[in-house]
Description:
The protein is of the alpha/beta class and 352 residues long. It has 9 helices and 16 strands.
Amino acid sequence: xxxxxFIDRDGTIIREPEDEQIDAFEKLQFVPGAISALSFLRQxxxxxxxxxxxxxxxxxxxxxxxxFWPVQNFIIQTLEGEGVTFDDILIDPHFPKDNAPTxxxxxxxxxxxxxxxxxxxxxxxxxxxxxxDRQFAANIGCKFQQVGEWKTVCEQIFAGERTAExxxxxxxxxxxxxxxLDGTGKCDIQTGIGFFDHMLEQIGRHGMIDLTIHTHGDLHxxxxxxxxxxxxxxxxxxxxxxxxxRGIERYGYSLPMDDCLCLxxxxxxxxxxxxxxxxxxxxxxxxxxxxxxxxxxxxxxxxARMNLHIRAEGQNEHHKIEGIFKALARSLKMxxxxxxxxxxxxxxxxxx
Length: 352
């Protein structure tokens, strides 16, 4: 089966000016990282490249063709010089008010790909910068990559999106966890234990991991099952999202927090182990028993198949445990960082 990268032009490959018309060379600027990312994808994948662009009123008095094509041809020639060639270039000249069936997010311009059974839309992508590009992707049954940093787009198309979902249901708990290791730190965490929610949010925020955790546990009994099972589900979800682990840094370490020094070192080598060197004199911090801290990290380490060393020193108990969670987040961020230019297992054994 064939698959395609449907690539928007303005705002995606080149910067879009305020008047939304690139009709002069002085307006032309390439989006940082676009050329190198497209060159990598062209060289290392078998996607067909198709440029799909709305050019409002092209050919009318407001946008004469003789101001468009010199710039367009220069863009194409520049990209070709870096190994980026397009299998097809599709341009729609209609204004939005025309409601043309060929104008994105309508699908008429790419109908030949949709109707051809040789093309698999489910494994194809639309790369764009606007919500209309997202809608266009949905309309043609493709995945969507929004250009923020081209490096991230390139990684996720070449090596895959690192997301996972785990549902864990027992007689004691019902837990849903979703993870995106290449996220922006968005969190939706509800465990029924306020301080635990606050700590788990540190993992997402400081690890730049999108994290959803919804836990319904037997809190009428105590907090043990809720905390333990959440750790198991989160660890399993991280392990699944890592996938083959090819190209990852593998190791992470870090952080001081006011009076406390919190060190977390980890290894995603596949051999779970926990070394815990932290003591707490209070029975609870917020509504979370301090005796469950060690149990949480032990369960997390086991399920994520990671070697985890934790040490904390300091006087303020709240700062100490919050520092540990933040240090874990920074360690995760470091360890899961992926390098597609050295896309191999970080192990002399050839497996993790």
